[in-house]
Amino acid sequence: MAEKKLMKGNEAIAEAAVRAGCRFYAGYPITPQNEIPEYMSWRLAEVGGHFVQSESEVAAINMVFGSAGAGGRAMTSSSSPGISLKQEGISYICGAEIPCVIINMVRSGPGLGGIQPAQCDYFQATKGGGHGDYRMLVYAPSSVQECVDLMYTSFDKAEKYRLPVMILGDGMLGQIMEAVSLPPMRDLNTIPKKKWATTGEGFGDTRRIINSLYIVPDELEAMNIKLQNIYDSMAVNETLVEEYLVDDADIILTAYGTVGRIAKSAVDILREQGVKAGLIRPITVYPFPTASFQKAASGKAKEFLAIELSMGQYIEDVKLSVEGKKPVRFFGRSGGNIMSPEDIVAFVTKENK
Amino acid sequence: MSIVFEKTSFLTDTSMHYCPGCTHGIAHRLVAEALEELGVKGHVVGVAPVGCAVFAYNYFNCDMQQAAHGRAPAVATGIKLTDPDNIVFAYQGDGDLASIGIAEIIHAATRGTNITVIFINNAIYGMTGGQMAPTTLIGQKATTCVYGRNAETNGNPIKVCELLATLTGPSYIERVSLGDVKSVKQAKKAVLKAFQNQIDGKGFSFVEMLSSCPTNWHMTPTQATSFVSNEMQNMFPLGVFKEVE
Fold it and tell me: A22: nearest CA in chain B?
């Protein structure tokens, strides 16, 4: 029987990271994710790792660049404004093909915005974020347990594809307390060695260079094609989605993360009221579970409802996947406001009258 | 026949891209010779900056990472904490270190992170074509201060060694010059000490090298080294600014 503990989302994800082999964390305080650096500050010391409270988000992501480039399992975390500051570093990390993990406990924006939950960093997380042509593997957990489970495999995925994995949460997910089963402590000896990492032995022909500078256009284009091929293979192998009561549904609700969970409750209420509702909840928002939407759009579903804590970002990927076959409507809140399952039910039943 | 001089093995055979008369080549050799003499082969990771030395990863014969502009001390911090037994150095220019990266160098220094930083101060942005640097002298011409740097409109140059010497963290801070042979010999001693300190676990060590940029200063190489030895040294005095025994 796995160990079960009552933990806050931020603390649970930090513990899962340590158990996954994370031995370096750098970060800068920002609400609502402060429990992650606080937890890491004492926990990493217990397991022989290193914690740095950096001078800025910019420094934090570049410390992760260095540590992960040297072959360690390294991560950082922040919330929206801080993630914006990390974008330069994330672009370099993608260009230099460095595996690491970045957690964004999203808060409302733009600007300094607010500290309440939001999903307004969707475009930034899924379309690149910084300069250049790159993507990340982006997980959108909807419960503390899912945070733990996805965090636990994130380093393996990052290292398999040599890119950063982003865990796209929100302020609610970071602050909520739930009972979680924690995975076992990963034996660091079972982590595959990285031949490309700058571990110091390099000399002459065995030198390792971590670099994102390609001054010759053909070489840079080849690099971009290589990255695109990696993203394509990730789409085949890593896309995760939860489908709930989709097959006979007249209306497909779709949402990710915390909102996906709220929408699932709305589906249950709607079903009790005789409305045949279903849910598509992407667990990876990049790669996007396009196939689930295409299947539903070609089937019985009459319409889709994209639900998000932003003003129409997520709906764009839903529409691209539905390809105009069925109408896609929008229900969103923002500014830190959250819809309840009843709000969604009211929206659906009112619109269907 | 006996060998009287050999290129240090810590430099690769790659031809350097530096301009004729540029002192980056000398600075590279001093760093490489020091690493060779200290016998740390197989335990070194360097960090290249953005700027003229961006291609340093092609020249230093060791594992290298190329950092974003100004972030080399943060990258070096991540590398050092991941493999504390490795000798880790950052090699940065004045725009990289004293302008966009001033926060990273100050905080790496104040944390006392056990790394070695080589700071090339040639008072100009070389790679981008001669714009004003944070260390450009008052009166010195650059493409973004065409009549010469004026404190009122362009601000004043930063003295990095003096700034860092106010901090408790660093173990060793010295400014040297590459303007003449005697100074170069002193620079070599400083580089050796900065790396020996790291081997001894003393913490953050910093060597600033006053360097020339004949191309963007619009001088001949000899005029440029003379400018280093006179004008630059007047503004940026040589010496040890901090040393913890």
Answer: B82
- Does the beta carbon of A162 lie under 8 angstroms from any beta carbon of chain B? no
**Contact pairs from chain A to chain B, CB under 8 Å:** 141
The rounded distance, in Å, linking the Cα atoms of B100 and B96 is: 6
Q: Which chain A residue has the Cα nearest residue B75?
A: A66
The complex's ipTM? 0.97
Q: Mean pLDDT, to the nearest integer, of B70-98? A: 98
Structure tokens at A273: 């009221």
Is residue A69 within 8 Å of residue A96, measured between CB atoms?
A: yes
Q: What is the pLDDT along chain A (353 residues), one digit of tens a residue?
A: 567 999 999 999 999 999 999 999 999 999 999 999 999 999 999 999 999 999 999 999 999 999 999 999 999 999 999 999 999 999 999 999 999 999 999 999 999 999 999 999 999 999 999 999 999 999 999 999 999 999 999 999 999 999 999 999 999 999 999 999 999 999 999 999 999 999 999 999 999 999 999 999 999 999 999 999 999 999 999 999 999 999 999 999 999 999 999 999 999 999 999 999 999 999 999 999 999 999 999 999 999 999 999 999 999 999 999 999 999 999 999 999 999 999 999 999 986 65
Helix (H, G, I), strand (E, B) or coil at A131: coil
CATH number assigned to the domain comprising residue B117: 3.40.50.970
Q: Are B29 and B41 in contact (CB under 8 A)?
A: no
Q: Considering the domain boundaries, does residue B7 fall inside one?
A: no
The ranges assigned to domains in chain A are: 4-238, 241-352
Distance from CA of B222 to the nearest CA of A (A): 31
B213: in domain? yes
Distance CA B86, CA B95 (A): 27
Residue-wise burial string across A204-227, b where 16 or more C-beta atoms lie within 10 A, e elsewhere: eeebbbbbbbeeeeeebeeeeeeb
* Extended beta strands in chain A, E state: 4-8, 24-27, 50-53, 74-78, 100-106, 137-139, 164-170, 177-181, 209-210, 241-244, 251-254, 277-282, 284-286, 303-308, 328-332
Give the H or E element holding residue B117: strand B116-121
Fold exhibited by the domain A4-238: Rossmann fold (3.40.50)
Q: Which residues in chain B are contacts of A24 at CB distance < 8 A?
A: 78, 81-82
∠ CA B202-B208-B213, rounded to 5°: 155
Q: What's the one-letter identity of residue B178? A: L
End-to-end CA distance of chain A: 49
| B170, B112 Cβ separation under 8 angstroms | yes
Any domain includes B12: no
Count Cβ atoms within 10 A of the Cβ of residue B167 and give its class: 0-12 exposed, 13-18 middle, 19 or more buried. Answer: middle
Parallel/antiparallel/unpaired status of strands A4-8 and A24-27: unpaired
Fold of A241-352: Rossmann fold (3.40.50)
Distance, CA of A325 to CA of A72 (rounded, Å): 47
Instruction: For residues A100 and B82, give the distance between their C-alpha atoms in angstroms, rounded to a whole number.
Output: 14
DSSP state of A216: S
